[in-house]
User: What shape does this take?
Amino acid sequence: MLFGRGKKNPIKIADKGVKEWKYATCGYCSTGCAIEVGLNEEGRAVSSRGVGNADVNRGKLCLKGIFEHELFESDGRGTEPKIRDSFHDDWQTTDWDTALDKTYSEIRRVQEKYGRDSVAVISTGQMLTEEFYTLGKLTRGIIGTNNYDGNTTLCMASAVSGYKRSFGSDGPPGCYDDFDQTDLLIAWGSNLPEQHPIIYWRMKEAQEKSGFPLIVIDPRVTMLAQNADRHLTVTPGTDVVLMNSMMHVILDEGLEDKRYIEANTNGIEELRAEVAKYDPVTAAKICGIDEDTIRAVARQFAKAKTAMQIWTMGINQSTHGSDGVVGINNLALITGNIGIPGGTSLSITGQCNAMGTREWSSCSGLPNHRLLENPQDREDIGKFWNVDPEFFPKKRGMFQTDIYQAMELGEIKGLWLIATNPMSSLPNTARIRKAMEQLEFCVIQDCYEDTESAQYGDVYLPAGTWAEKDGVMTNTERRINVVKPVIKPHGNSKPDLWIFNRMAERFNAEKKPEDKLNFPEKAADIFLEMGKLSEGRLSDNSGMTHELIEKHRGIQWPYTKQQAEAGEAPKTKGVRLYTEDATFRYPDGKAKLIPLPFIDNNEVPDNKFPFWLNTGRLIEHWHGRTKTGKLSNNNKYSPIPFAELNPDAARELGVIAGDYIRLVSPRSDAIVMAQLTHRVPKNMIFVPFHFHDCANRLTLGLLDPHSRQPAYKQSAVRLERIEDQEAAAQMSMEMRTF
Amino acid sequence: MFQVREDEPKYAFLQDKDSKDQNRYGKPIELTTEGDALRDQSLNINNDSDIGDNPNRYKQHGFYFTADNCIACHACEAACSEKNDNAGHIAFRSVGFVEGGTYPDYRRQNISMACNHCDDPVCLKGCPTRAYTKFAEYGAVLQDPDICFGCGYCTWVCPYNAPQLDPVEGTVSKCNMCVDRLEVGLKPACVSACLGNALEFGVIENTPDDRYQVDAQIPGFPDPSITQPNIRFQQTKTLSRDMKRVDSTAIKYHRDDDAGNYQPVLDEKHGKTKHWGMKTLLASHENAHVMFTLSAQAVMGAFVMLVILGSFFGAPVIESLQASNAKIPLLLIMFGLMGTGLYKLNMHLGKPHRFYRGFNNLRHSPLSREIAGVSAFFAGLAGYTFFNFFDNAFTNFLAGASALLGLIGFAAGSYYMYKLYRIKARPFWDHWQTASTFYGTMLSLGGLLMAVVGSLFMPNSAELIKYFAMIIAFGLIIEAFGLLFHAKDLKSGSGEGQAAHYELSTTFGKTYWLRNALLVLNIILVVVISYTSLSGIGGILVGLLLTASLIAMAYLGRIIFYALVTPTTMPGAFFWKNKGFVDHARESGLADMQQLGVAYERHHKFDVKELMDTVKENSLMDMIEQAKAIVTGK
Assistant: This one.
């Protein structure tokens, strides 16, 4: 045995000199991992680690969370407010008062000129809940535009809509503990290992113990799909047909839970009549899954003691997104798989606080799932906020996607864009660009100043990011967890809450003292105000405080004032909704079984555009890459846009691995590098959506009739080999700065 | 000591209760016996003198990888880079993959790989500076960047891509097994971070909970016989007969039913089109090696001819050259060439001012021995040159002694110059052709050097030209034979060899043919000249042409030798750890973005200050100790 040196030098191992660890909740996806940020002697954030005793992540983090501390000082962070007269001019650095005054007066000017709803406020799923609540109060209570929505329309709107239609309210009924309890898992259009790595780990831990079968429905052979017991390569956009056919088999063979249906649902006869049309032979021809498999999966699902279904964008981002969610709920309801340990339909949420915005932002109505359409809700909130209930619109306004169409028509002239980047994230970039160009006033509020949308801004407000701020977030399993301000915001940027409150001061100044609205300064106080508004409602968090949440490493709602006062400690895990019979949110307590007729309105490949374009995420990137595109230890795994292309198709096109290729859709084109793999079928390419001026130049994005969510995953393109590879590389490089 | 958190989850703690006595290679797992002097020493991690209380402290540890489970989430890599504070272009651990099958019957197998802390650490043996140590504690193979001079030889010999040569820092660094965590009973950071339940760690040959295989190999993993790596595998899912690499390496792994494993075979992934590849060749960081080996071989050849053929065997042509006024210019040119070559080579190091450390590992490293041999040769050449300015008994004796030193240096230096390329992980080099080319070049370029200088300084050089033309022809023929056999053996050899030959005939196909054509042409030309000699203006022109052609041929042949080697190593991913993408990023300018994780190759300055500091900080006794350690190995 060799030992090298006898006389050894001391071993050097990097020591980042962490002096203090501060608690936060991860600001990337909605898994809701508890994270600690390590600060060194100078107070710089130098390290991140998962909190060991937090039930969600149990000490683990994904690669994005592991480097989250690097975000604070990453490239492109905004440090000073900026203004300019038009987007053709250069930015001028200014002070906060000037920037905020201009924002206030321009919003009012546009509203006076074009009407109250001509200004749109588009927010996000990225902020903290108290910030959402405050923005909602400001927008609904004083600014008064009804065109207020968030980018959650691009990710979770179909889940919200589907839950509302089935159960009478939004709110995912299950939790991560269901993985530990279930006897069968179906993943619809969800690639956990890549999109929600920590939830995947929780699932894997559970599966290694109990060995439950996993069924994955996905047109692409993802890591989850290749490890599934069954992989159903469904034809894009036809999930509803598969669901209907599974229900056909279940009802036809009497495998349904008759007692549960009777006690908990309305509409079984209408459902039965509709699914009768979807016998497996007929359905197989539409959805691309053979009849034997449909039958086998339906039986396996129905016969499992408990069965859990999860889904993500494969369902939501479709013209049948909301219907797909309803279909999943239908399957769960007819087999009694709701509200029981291991039996649930759980939407795996996208952004870190998409749930928080669903609950508290007032985008789709009023706080805590209240509806503008409901006079009592308007009355209650009006009173609580000191707003004349008549000031509220009687119906919710436009969704983000519809706002952009209205912008194209010139109906929206002012835009307040908060922590979102439609130039990259909305489908059909060319249309979005035209819409942005015709705005009279646009204010960009973002923690990054280099978002592609900022090119159309007249005011730029630099916001703090993630753990520079104070507040809570809600995760996929309804767990509210807290983010503490770990360090002060970068440069002269300010927390979004501070910005909203300063804006509120300006709007409030218009009012007589007795008509003013109250905007508390501290997040913890706002949280208590929200708690009051939640009392007795489905998402009741009136028993929680920031301190209690941190102590328990997050608390699942509901946790009520009554429970807290009775000394009942919050449960560590396993809080579910609809655990008793007839406790759904429709007046009679019963859920609706909704028939789902299928109309194929997708753009499907044809002779001119013979490939399906499927878009999606990569584990190393977050959304438009403003965060991860700057961090080499995330970005390096996929630093430039690429397309997964089937090698058989590549051979016919004369394309070899690593070639730049041109993708052309009926909208525009994009240049990507070809990665050859049998992960995708011969008539499909997969392009990650993270890169600016790439996937969304091509997407059509037809809207779901219920949720208004775009169908990002079903477009048609053609492929062209590029002769001049050097020019293509150059072009690809020039199209984005990071 | 590393701080264990109060809420540290159970999975992060090492679990080994028992262990086997011997590993599968018959080596004891307990690395030192009770009472051995190597026991109960502090690892002195960051100068902390405490000793860890891990009960298995002296047992060989290793990683365990459940290949079925890895999802390529990169959490292991991220946790490693976060802990070790590594920039994006450095990775002590990285994940690549192989894939096979036809949609939807497709499977991708990810492979997460770091250092395997081998029983036979080729890095340790190869490193000329003795920057590596295999510790009795955990059997960890650790490398000290403060000793390293950045030659990168360890990155050539390691089959797993473990040592990371940082073009920015100019030194190598690598996986340290998280010995700080092991000391307090925690698993390494990468293992604790794994989200697929794929990575495990413990005493080698132990089977983790819920696992049953303890295999030494999976498809894509290099032949474990090279280094006896301390990693074990479980891989139960059925894979396709062909598992393909997605990086640019023209390799796939093909199931060998008889052997029961997968063997690397050629995958002609970019067709058969022939390119020049000249841009890549000219930009190659290995040009320093080309300059050095060619000039050293030319000078060595000339020197040996001068001394042995001339002084020893008394070849008339060389004796007349020795007696002529060409001798001093010839020696000066040789000295200059050799000096330039050595300078180029030294300045190609990441830390050129640490050159003196190249002798540290004479006991094991062929590179150290080459450096020592070449240094002795250079000293002998210098002495021989210097004393040839005088002519008396004393200086003649010293010239003779210098010649002897030069010859000894030549013997050792030239042998180890060849030997250091006989690397198992680099099948393209691991062939006797390396020797035939190197020694052939000594004859051809050495002969050329003497012929050119001789004909410049001697009035009647017709015989001299004929004589050296014959020697050049001899050298070229030796080289040509070697190349023929090399090409034949590559085509029928291992996958990496086949892949190298495939690149040779495609990516550099036109250059390869040009080199071969020049070789044949040059042989014909020198054979003719060896009969006819050269004279007149035409002779000068032909001579010049031949000189240029010989040099061009030698350059092309040699740069191909370096640029083309396809190592036996871990598969990369599509962007990450893909040589093809790294080359593209550097050529296109994409690498200008720091967050791309690709650093440009660069030269490093000779840091006189660091050198002077080292001289000041170390007493004469220290230096003597150091020199003694080279011999004793202590």
